TrEMBL record:
Database matches in InterPro entries: Tscrpt_reg_Rrf2, WH-like_DNA-bd_sf, WH_DNA-bd_sf
Species: Aureimonas glaciei
SUPFAM superfamilies: Winged helix' DNA-binding domain
GO MF terms, alphabetically ordered: DNA-binding transcription factor activity
Protein name: Rrf2 family transcriptional regulator
Gene Ontology cellular component terms for the protein in this record: cytosol
Phylogenetic classification of the source organism: Bacteria, Pseudomonadati, Pseudomonadota, Alphaproteobacteria, Hyphomicrobiales
PANTHER family xrefs: HTH-TYPE TRANSCRIPTIONAL REGULATOR YWGB-RELATED (PTHR33221:SF15), WINGED HELIX-TURN-HELIX TRANSCRIPTIONAL REGULATOR, RRF2 FAMILY (PTHR33221)
Domain of life from the UniProt record: Bacteria
């Protein structure tokens, strides 16, 4: 079963956008994401409608983040891409009126609702600023590790 990776992909795009000053074109973002510029434009149009990004046409134009990273949660981005289904699993509905199926589906519905609520709360607690800080911490760790390796090889 194919997984929906749009949220992960658009978060990736947003963090790339946060790393540069000025607008990025759909072509530049598509190259970074190894996809088609049309895919980028389609995804970012939904984010623009929700006020998360803005676009400017013409020479020097492109996409920019419209809000401070600390004010945008992963849940905001999730909602902006249309709140796709969270689970690939679902209930069996081939035997309407079957009491066994009803009991199983009721238990599954409760579990799905609880898990979805937990995930949405977690998405609401993480901001783009937190993702950016995590990226920068990882970059600093990798850079310091590389510097250390370079120094040990020079000895």
């Amino acid at each position: 079963m194919k997984r929906d990776s749009r949220l992960s992909g658009v978060l990736h795009v947003l963090l790339h956008m946060a790393e540069v000053e000025g607008p990025l074109t759909s072509e530049q973002l598509a190259a970074a994401m190894q996809t088609n510029p049309v895919v980028i434009r389609r995804i970012l149009a939904g984010l623009r409608d929700d006020g998360l990004v803005r676009s400017e046409k013409g020479h020097g134009g492109g996409w920019t983040i419209a809000r401070d990273l600390s004010t945008v949660t992963l849940r905001d981005v999730y909602a902006a891409i249309g709140s796709p289904g969270i689970f690939a699993m679902g209930n069996r509905t081939e035997a309407p009126g079957c009491l066994v199926e009803e009991a199983v589906n009721a238990a599954m519905d409760d579990a799905f609702a609880e898990a979805e609520s937990l995930l949405l709360r977690r998405l609401g607690a993480v901001t783009l600023a937190a993702l950016s800080a995590d990226f920068h911490a990882r970059l600093a760790q990798r850079t310091s590790h590389c510097d250390f390796k370079d120094e040990t090889h020079a000895v």
